Every structure is written in structure tokens, then in C-alpha cells.
Amino acid sequence: MGSGSGEGSPTQMQLNNPSDSMSRAIAQYTIDARLHAVFEQSGESGKSFDYSQSVKTHASAQSVPEQQITAYLSKIQRGGLIQPFGCMIAIDESNYRVIAYSENAKDMLGFTFNPHHTVPCIDGGVNKVEILTIGVDVRTLFMPSSGLLLEKAFSAREITLLNPVWIHSKASGKPLYAILHRIDVGIVIDLEPARTEDPALSIAGAVQSQKLAVRAISHLQSLPGGDVKLLCDTVVESVRQLTGYDRVMVYKFHEDEHGEVVAESKRPDLEPYMGLHYPSTDIPQASRFLFKQNRVRMIVDCHAKPVCVVQDERLQQPLCLVGSTLRAPHGCHSQYMANMGSIASLVMAVIINGSDEESSGRNAMRLWGLVVCHHTSPRSIPFPLRYACEFLMQAFGLQLNMELQLSAQVLEKRVLRTQTLLCDMILRDSPTGIVTQSPSIMDLVKCDGAALLFRGKYYPLGVTPSEPQLKDIVQWLLTHHGDSTGLSTDSLADAGYPGALALADAVCGMAVAYITQCDFLFWFRSHTAKEIKWGGAKHHPEDKDDVQRMHPRSSFKAFLEVVKSRSMPWDNAEMDAIHSLQLILRDSFKDDEATNSKAIVHTQQGDIEMQGIDELSSVAREMVRLIETATAPIFAVDVDGCINGWNAKASELTGLSVEEAMGKSLVHDLVCDESKNVVQELLLHALRGEEDKNVEIKFKAFVPDQHKKGVYVVVNACCSKDYTNKIVGVCFVGHDVTGQKIVMDKFVNIQGDYKAIVHNPNPLIPPIFAADENTCCTEWNTAMVNLTGWSKEDVVGKMLVGEIFGVLCRLKGQEALTKFMIILHNAIGGQDSEKFPFSFYDRGGKFVQALLTANRRANIDGHVTGAFCFLQIASPDLQQAIQIQRQQEKVCFERMKELAYLCQEIKNPLNGIRFTNSILEATNLGEDQKQFIETSNACEKQIKRILGDIHLESVDEGSLELVKTEFMLGNVINVIVSQVMIPLREKGLQLIRDIPEEIKTLAVYGDQIRIQQILAEFLVNMVRYAPSPDGWVEIHVLPRLKQIAGGINVVYIEFRLVSPGEGLPPELVQDMFHNSRWVTQEGLGLSMCRKILKLMNGEVQYIRESERSYFFVILELHMCPRDSKSGD
To answer: Which one of 97, 271, 386, 444 is separated from 854 by 20 to 30 angstroms, measured CA to CA?
Structure first.
């Protein structure tokens, strides 16, 4: 919301710029810090703090002192206070000595101040108890067995996966949950009392909490897709049943950082908060950051006085409590809770995958919202149950992410269909059809009105400004934003439009797309308050509200106050839809001038591609030979499902020769009845372009051996395409699992002595492990030992979830652990899982990829006793077959990629040669001519070097050889300028050089040809997309001299290649900065040059500002020795 950003920030100036969530977050920190300071100044209780007025006042705050922000963050993260329901000890990890403890730790652990205090020992003697103080060994504070458990946990790599550790105080003998996490100076041990009657104290009790969570997760997964509201409603009911809190809500964070209650389950007598919107300041950015680190947060009693932490004076700053389960709430938050009658709370983070713009964050994860539990009296739930809730939130986040992606795809399809219909109207009929017919431009995005200004005529639709008002808006746009492609804002007043007041609440937000300099598309939105409805508002008349107090009602009023002159913000998907329509319409208004030039380029490329046909044919023949002789079964079918490829291994397994197999129907002739439906679906998917993986097929056995009932093969499908990219069949790469299948079937059905099977060292026996009802490991066969590197003695008796797969065998993140836990509990509950992708790191750090099958294990009476788990590992045969399958496509693509690269890159130096030759023809030989010849020679060398780049893998892999020589930097600049002179003349562009004189004679050491190739590529693209006529391109060079170790002089050179206007198309920038894909030849050239520059320890950025865009290139070059001496 407005309270989350600085003045004017709601305006998005360029339609094609993504919203900068990081900038919003940083701006929000400023607002949060200011509100925090006002609260602190209002007195210890905060009772004089006028919340609504503060939110409104500071929503437009310009800045706060840096010290104030630092103090605010320190107060949140290193406040030195914990909640009194537990105690805390921090230790130095190197020696287990205490470096900090909470003041209540002595009482909670049962210590007295008597230094001679003793307790009875098991053997009848007495133990001297150490006084809890700085420097004491923490192991001496607990029973010997507890000390060993702690010491073992301290040595674990992922220490949090072992939480909670169940220990006993040496002084009192009382049981405690020890919850451990690492910080910058050691390990923090949060200690929570565990009641002896608490069922969660036992492993069975902890597992029961997991089972409850898995049951709730299964319920979530069984819901019909496409309904986010139903998913949220279900999760609040599940959490309330699991935890017993009076109220459970789902808070959703909107793109502008404000929040909304989207689901609620509560006690009937409580006031509803469903539909409540609240300012972004209600949950500060610092708190949101903490929720990403510590995803479950419990406050037991907001009235309880916090406890101070005593720490070693040698520590340089207060202890970091970010990961502590006991961290005390800030006074402002406690006051808020008390005002709303909520004494206790449990808050859980809802994390989903972030957008592309956020991918640089922590594993590209985003805080979507929170699940918040409130209770009207003090309430504490044990750590195992909170841990189970965290698993539930993991599953909820995964499910929610899928639903949001599905929703985005549905929206994208609807928008695409609407765009197509709108463009069809424009091309077939008058452009006015997009506002007079159905669908109209109002159907593209949610709005209250829309308008088209076409050839001076105004076509309004819905709630819009009057014609004079709109023409005034257009005049303002052209005057203040004439260089942009459009504008979007949720507040015309904040965007600076002088006539905003006259539009009142009817038109607050606007998005406009420039089609031509005279034609515009508009979308309008009314003020936000019109859209917002809160069910709780009707229960209490306004005059009974205390708007000064921090309360959901005052938050709601503050939110409405902040947004009363704003519309709902335009989200990224809506702006993308508008921008896409804008591009389509702009292209449709252009002539077909570019068509002929494109045809010429394609013809030239075709001629070059023909030169690679022989090589591709040779590669194809080699691939066929490899497939025929592969040690894995490979076969192929045409579009009718008839065999047209059958290798030697497939013949060997089935007993059917190549000649006999060709032409037979895969479904009707070759597979067993139980696999027919599976294969039909597999073919149907593949012919639609969907390539299924790890599908089990049972083939008929065409051999005299009566014992061989069938052949089991796990296959991957791969679409076969012709040169037009049309699917003409399907290729299958298989893995023979017949032996493993027979063993597993016998094992699951308990035929014979299963222990003999488990411990059989026969290589046909797959990796097998087993769990009891509490998910503790009971079996670990030889194949598992060989696969993981961990012996049976290392694992039996340990928890499979967390201890074995988590600590010993590391998994990739919490999400993988959650999925494994669900599969294991489902199997114990009777729901088998087959061939689930499962990956982990073995003892030596090698990454293992497998397929996990988990089945229920029962005794003779049918009672569940645990689960059997089997792993299928891709054999060397299958890995080789998959590699062969992909190799042909990769080789063909690389050849086409190289040809396209050569075709593109050869143009730039040729332009330079053409220009140089044209100068030579009109000039007598002299000093200038010699320079021209030198430039021409440099261009020719550049061509030769590019043509030598046959294997682009050397660029991708960073192994490209650089040829370093001494050269004059001025010569390089002359060469790159020569390569753009003809395009500059053709487009009527001016070249501006801002180059210091000393640069022209600066002698440096490096790869001259590569440097000129890179700079020429960047400069040519700036010229190509500079507006013409009367445009310009500027070369700005700034050198900085620096002396490094050994007295070597290094020059850092900054190049700015600038042009006005929009600059490079977005898809070109995508090509340049994304290694795995390229759409255009220009993008490939830019991408390769960026990689070459990186090999030379240089870097490049492409920056787009409101009126110009530019490449910013930094090069580091050694100066030649003679220059170094002269510099001295």
C-alpha cells in the first residue's frame, strides 16, 4: 500500500518494466522504522500511540536516519529478550562452553546459588552440580545421557533436523525439549519444559503428531483443483483441529505489500476478521524476513514479562535471536495482540516459489502469506506438534503454488484469447470495434472503465473521464511522459496529474498504452474503498471504534484512509497483458517494410546451413549405429503405434527378432493385457508432445521358457519429429527391471522368508529398507549399504525422517523431507506409493537419484507393523541409453546454433571492411590511409577469429583460449566505430564520442580481437535499435588507474554505449542474460560476447532508464611495462 513506499512510488513509468519488489521492501523498512520510533517515544506501554494517524502521516515519509533503521533492526533481531515459558543457553561450538543464558535458566533447570549443591546419583552416590554461569561446560548441566545426546547433535551438519532433543536437567531431573540452531557465534539451545504426561515426549507421540499432519495433508491433496479459496478454507479448519486455537486465519500479502484475511475458522462468539485488509506496516518487513528464517512462531502470553539474556562481555554485539523459538515479541506487537483480546498466538509462514524477478533470493522462494492462530487465553503447544504444523505448511505451500500456477495459466489463456479477438477486430473492421463490440478492452483486465483515442476521436466505455478531461490527460502525458511507452498508476494525484482532484473518486487509477504518437488505449479504476468489504464492520457502528488503538478495526480504517484516493494496484500479469496487446497493435499499424530484408537474411542463412548437411548426416548415421548396439532396450513406433524401430537388446529380452517386431502393434501385439491401457495413454500423451518418464510396461515373452511369464521394462518416452518439427512417432528408451520386480512382488506379499531376501547379497536384490510404525529404521540391506555408504549399525533404530534421510543422507531442502515423510506415513497407513522420484547425497557427498516405492508392511494377522521401501537406481545401461537418446538432438542443435552464430557475427566486421574500403577508394595513400588499412586488417582478423569459433562449448564451459598481445586502445575504438559507420549513415544517426585524449595512445595488454568483437557487438545493437532519423549513439569511455600487488599498473575502463528511446527489445535482453535459451541471432551474439567478456574478468550490464538505455561495460587490463614506468 501507500504506506509501504515513498512519495510517488505507486507510479510505474514503463509498462515493460517488472515491479521491483526489492525496492518496495527497502522503502517499507523506512516506514516501519519510523513507526517503531514513534511507538517507542509514546511511553513504555504505548497507550498514547495513535496508530491510525501514524500510518497516515508516515505513509509518505521521505527517509529516516540510517542509525534509526539500524537500531530498529537490532531491536527486532537482537533484542536480548525471550519469552518466559522456556529458557535459553548459547554455547561456543568449539568447546561447548556457555557464552550466554537467560536469567530464568537457573530456576527453570532447578539450580540454586549454593556452590556445593548436590543431587543423588543412580549408583547411590552424589553428583556435584555446576552452577550455570558464563564459561561452564553445558554438558555438565544435564544428565550424562543427555549430555551425550547434545554432543552428538552438536556435531550434526544439519542440526535443526534433529530437533527436538529430549534431555533431563541434572539438578531437577525434569524433562526438557532442547531445540537447537546455529548462529554466528555458536549454537543456541532453546529449552522448553516437557510435561511428563505429554504424549509427545515419546517417539510414538512425536510420530503421532506427524501422522495428524499427514492426514491433514492428504485431505488437502484430495481437494478438487482450481479453487484457491477452498484450499485456504480447508487449511484453517485442519490447523484449528490440530492445534486447538480459538481462531485460525490465512493472511495473504498483496503485491503492494498490504494484507488481507482470505480464510478464517473461529469460535462462534468471536468477532469475524474475514475480508479484513490492513496496511503493510501491520506486519513489518523485518518480521516478514524473520518468517522466512523461522517459519513457525509461537507467543504463549503477550502479557508475560520478557526475560533478559545475560551474555559474555567479550561478545561484540547482542546475541542473534532470529532462529530462537523463544524470542520475545516487540512491545508494539504485544500491545496490538492485547487490544484485540488475543493473549496467545501461533504464526506459520506460507512459502511458495518466487517470480523470475525474485529468483536471486533464497532459493527463489517468496513469502505468500501467513497462517495465524489466536487464543483468548495463554496457550502453549509442544514443539513436536509445531514441527508437524511446519510440515503441513510445507505441503500447503506446494499445493497452493500449483493452484496459483494453474490459475495463472487459465488467466494467460483467457487474456491470449481476448487479445486475439481484439486484434482480429482491428484488422478486419474499424479499430473502434474493441470498445463497441464484445469482447472489449474492458475484458482484458479488471477495470471500471476503458477508452480508445483514435485519430482524434474519443470512444469511452464504462466509468471514464469526460472527453475534455481525457484530452487534458493526454496533453499531460505527452508533456511529462512523452518518451515512455505508457504509464500505470494507482493514484493519478500521486503521479503528478494536476486535474486528479476534479476526477474525484470515480477515476483514481489509470493504465495507458501508447499505440502511435496520436492513438492511445486507456483503462481506469475507481478508488479502492469501493472494492473493499469487511464482514466485521457491520457488527460495531463506527462511533464505537477507538481508531487510535492498534486493533484490526483501526488497521482497517488506516488502510481505507491511505487508499481513499487510490485504486487497486495494477499487478504484473495485468501489465503484461496490456503491454502484449500494445505490441501487437503497434506491429499491426506498421508497414511490411521489414519483410523483404528478413527474407534475404533467411536465404543467406539457408545457404550456410546447407554446408552442414553432410556433417549432420554423418552424425545421424553414427547415432543409429549406437542405438542398434545399445545395451538398453530401445524401440520406436509411428503415429499409428506400429513398431518401426527395435534394437538388439529389445530382441534379446522379449525373444522377438527385429524382422518379426517391425510393423506389429505395440498395444495389441507386444504388451500384456494389464499394460495395454498404460501404453495407450503413454502413446496419446507423447503424440501430443507430453513425454512421460519412468513408466512400467510388461511385455509378452516370445521365448520357449515357460517360467518367463513376461518382461518388465521401465521406459522414458521421447517424441520423434521431422524437419518441420511435426511429431511423426515416439521413441522409447527402457530399463529392464524384471528381476527386481519378481523379488519385490514376493517381498511385499511375504512369500517365504523375507529376512533371507533382505540380507541376500545377490546383485539382483534392489536397495531395501524398512520402517516400524514410528518410522524408525528396522531393516537396511546390503544394497542400501553399498548405495549410501552407511552401514546397518549406523542407521537401525534411527528415525528415517530427519536422522537418516536428512542428517546422514542429506536431502535437497525441506520440501524433499516433507514429501518423503508424507510417502512414508501414507505407506504405513495403507496407501502405497510407486516410483516416486527420490534423491539424496550419499556418505561421500555423491548425489544419488532413484525411484522410491513404499508399501505397507503387515504381520500374519494383518496388523500394520511398518513399511517396506525399495529404491530403483538407473543402471549404467539406462544412463547410456538416455545419453544416446539426447546426444543426437544436442549435436543437431549445437550445429544449428553454431551456424546461426557465424551468420550473425560475420556481419559486423564486414560492415567495417566495407566502410574502410569505401574511404580508401576516395583517398590518396598517406598516414590516414595507413590507419584505414590497419583498421581493415583488424576487422579481417576479427572475422577469422569468429570463423575459428567452431566449438562454442569452449565459450560455454569457460575454456576459450585468449590470445593476449600489446595494443593501443585507440586502435580498438577506431575499429569498432568503423563497424557501425554504414548503419549510422543509413539511419541518419549522429555518433557522439566522449573519449579522453590519453585513451587513444594508451598501450595495454590483452586479447585485442576479442575486445573489439565484444564492444562492436554491443555498439552495433545500440545503433540497430536507436530511433531514427535525428537520433544519436554515444560512446563514453572513462579510465581509472590502479596499482596492485607487485607494482603492476592496472587500468579499469568503463564503456557506456548509449542511445535514446526504448533500446533493445525485451526478448533480446532475455537471450543475452539467459544461458539456456536463445530466440534471435542477435541475442545469441550478445550472449556469446557476454560470456567471452566474463572470461576476461569483465562484466556488462544493460540498463534501461526513462529516456535512454545503455550498455555499461567494465574491463580490467594490464598496462604495458613501458607505460607503467612512465607513469612512475
So the answer is: 386
